[in-house]
Amino acid sequence: MIERTEKVEDAEIAFYQREDLNKMANKKQFVTAAAAFAVTAAAVAPAMSASAAMPVVKLGSDYVRQGNLDAALDKKYHGSEIHWYKSSVNMNKLGVFQTAVGFVKGKGIKVEKRIRVLNYAQEVVGPKEMLVFEKGEAVSGIRTQPVKFADRVYMKPGSWSGIDTSKVGEFMATFTYTNKAYGTVSKSFKYKVVESAPMVSSVKLLNAKELEINFSKPVDASTLLYNGMLKDGTVEIDHIPDAQRLKGLRGTLSKDGKTLVVRAEKTFDGRYAVLASSKIEGLDGKALVPFKEIYTFEDNVRPVLNDPEYLENNRVKFTFSEPVNVDSEDELEKKLELKDASGAGYKVDVDKLSWDGKSFILDLSDAQFVAGKDYKLTLVGLRDFAGNFISPNPVTKIVQKKVIDAVNPSVVGMSSSKPGYLTVTFSEAVYVDRYNHVAKITLTNGEIEADLDDNAWLDESGKVLTVRDHSFIGQIDVKVSHFRDLAGNYGAASTKLVNFTNDEMAPTVTDAKVEVIDGKNHLVLTFSEELKHGAYSDGKMYGSYITPNGVEKKVAAWTDASYYSKNQIKTPISDLELGNYSVKLPANLVKDVVGNESLEQSIKFSIVSSPIEKEKPTFDGYYFQEKDNSTLYLKFSEKLDPSSLNLGNFLIEGKAIAEKAVFTDEDRDVIKLTLKEGAIQTTGKYAFVIQNIKDVVGNVMDTVSLNEKFAENDLPGLTSAVLTSNNVSGDYAVITLTFDESIAKYSIEDGYEDFKVLVGDKDLSKSATVTEIMGSQSNQVQITIDRVLTPAETAQTLTLKPGAAFEVLDLENNKHPLFTSVNIAK
Prior knowledge:
Blueprint: H1 2-27, H2 33-43, H3 47-52, E1 56-64, H4 69-72, E2 76-77, E3 80-85, E4 97-104, E5 109-117, E6 121-124, E7 131-134, E8 144-149, E9 153-157, E10 159-161, E11 169-179, E12 183-194, E13 200-207, E14 210-215, E15 225-226, E16 229-230, E17 235-240, E18 244-245, E19 250-253, E20 259-263, E21 270-276, E22 291-297, E23 309-312, E24 315-319, H5 329-333, E25 336-340, E26 345-346, E27 350-353, E28 359-363, E29 375-379, E30 395-399, E31 411-415, E32 421-426, E33 437-443, E34 446-451, E35 456-458, E36 464-468, E37 474-481, E38 494-500, E39 509-517, E40 520-527, E41 540-546, E42 552-558, E43 562-565, E44 568-572, E45 579-585, E46 601-607, E47 631-635, E48 650-652, E49 658-663, E50 670-675, E51 684-690, E52 704-710, E53 718-727, E54 732-739, E55 755-759, E56 762-763, E57 770-774, E58 780-785, H6 791-794, E59 798-802, E60 822-823
Parallel strand pairs: 1-5, 7-12
Antiparallel strand pairs: 2-3, 3-4, 4-5, 6-8, 8-9, 10-11, 11-12, 13-14, 14-20, 15-16, 17-18, 17-21, 19-20, 21-22, 23-24, 24-28, 25-26, 25-29, 27-28, 29-30, 31-32, 32-36, 33-34, 33-37, 35-36, 37-38, 39-40, 40-44, 41-42, 41-45, 43-44, 45-46, 47-50, 48-51, 49-50, 51-52, 53-54, 54-58, 55-56, 55-59, ...
Helix pairs in contact: 1-2
């Protein structure tokens, strides 16, 4: 490479020599032909000779910064332009001095300069694959990109221009890396903006009581939760291996709609299949991508008591790092101790324990407590729901009695916008007590508790209370009392004459239409007004319908009303035929908020098609084997077609080795699979494939491939029974039983009649004591008789039969099959 470079340089020098000499020849016409010939000969002589004859000037050394070789090379020498041969410098050769070679134009002078190339950025490598962004979402995670330097590729932070996620499509954006020392490089890349469906991005255990599920996009709370509970079929959590689906799951969705905290009725401890279905929808109505994974949950983290917060007058709030296992304020008080500096004790008054067990309020309003004085609160022996003690145990905190706010709240307005509803506006946010009560509403005919669990709700400010009751009719005096602010100050009772609009109108159906809900036909009834939630009655709707073939038939269908929206109910009609229906709804089907019951009403609707359910069944991700190691229970997401019982649908190491497959009940979503005896010869992990599973409408489940542990299910077998000793001097006899594999010692216990020995047709235990113990080998059992068998007895046939408590197991708990009898060799 060096030799070639030198030749190129010398050739260029020779070229410029020729150019200079030609110019001289043009200026001097008197040059003789011989002289011209000599010049020409010199020009075409070997390049090395021409170069060697030229004078060389060495210039001062310098560094090449930011990859800018031109900036490091002199432009002129004594006023004449320098032509540099850039091929003489290797720009990827760092840390050493190199010699740059040039030629002073018109002077016939060669110049050299020692330069040292410093590391510099050459180009942006950028992302290997096209960047994909979500429509409307902020872009993150792309600030650092690979940039090629002279020595290697580095991940470097830079800036992007031209990225816009407001529209779906493919666009161009430019990444620029700039640095004073290393230079600036840019490159443009194509990126894509998509509007995808929400997905489950992560699942993690917060504590034994709570699980956190994160979504890639905000989800619609109304498709996931109802009254703080998870809707059926949205998020399901199944315990493994007992196939138990957890019931009573509560859920809390974050304000941004991306984080769901699931609270268990009991606890999370062990293996679970976590499933989230397409019933959950994003804010744009797109269904969640179905999710299913198996997790092992175990809580070994001890709860911590945080420092006190003074949010209320004379009350102190304490928060735990996770829910603690205590049922009531009284129970918590037993674990608390309160003393002053002198050691004097005080009665502990827990005013409120939060419903989730994460916090409590300590009441110090009693006159015995002095404002500003330190009191030591000690908590001992408290555990979380996994049984972990609080850390440290005991834990102590210093508390004081404080007045935070001395201003009392007041009622600033009472009104009614529609029958059955009272709106109360307070001067400030009001307190919600341990029973979720906010205030007491007194009317001339009784009292109403404003209960957030039943008949009331607060707005986000905590200042506007809405109460619903059927007695809010007409012009009546309303008294609001027993309310307090967040600091604990009670407000004065306030009375006002409120004009409630009279409502004696029964709710009526204004629209009836058939909608497909969860893949099934439902009749959705829209009423003229808001309905009292939960006040729905089952009843028979009756009438007639005309089929598409023109045949008129009678209807005798029961309604099964349930909530759909504030003024709508739904009832399943998937069993009804196609046709045009004219029916009457029963009276008292629903009630409005003031208790008016609906009347009998005629409606019409049409069923024009039966929905085709397209959701594939899924394997719920767990199974277990019974004691015999041959029975598996496989749980699926829905009712299956009988073809799912084909034995070829279940392969272990590529072979169908089951002898029977049946459904466990009419739900047909659990298959009991029985393996052939001896199908698994050695305990270990095997490739287990489940395929060709169909639901009742023909949707085929995706093939499931697992690597699961199977226990050996080769049943032990008795190979011989021999009278091995009839010891006259020892006065005993021994029968040795030999099996084809080792026997579990715990299954051979004296006192349990696994075997019965017969002499002829007589039970030997009637005339002797027969005992059983393990033999000298792990695959042998020894039956001992406490006397010698007589010659008359040994002359008869000796027979071994299963005893009343026969249960002989191998080391994998496989049970020896029941047998009729075996002759004992003598």
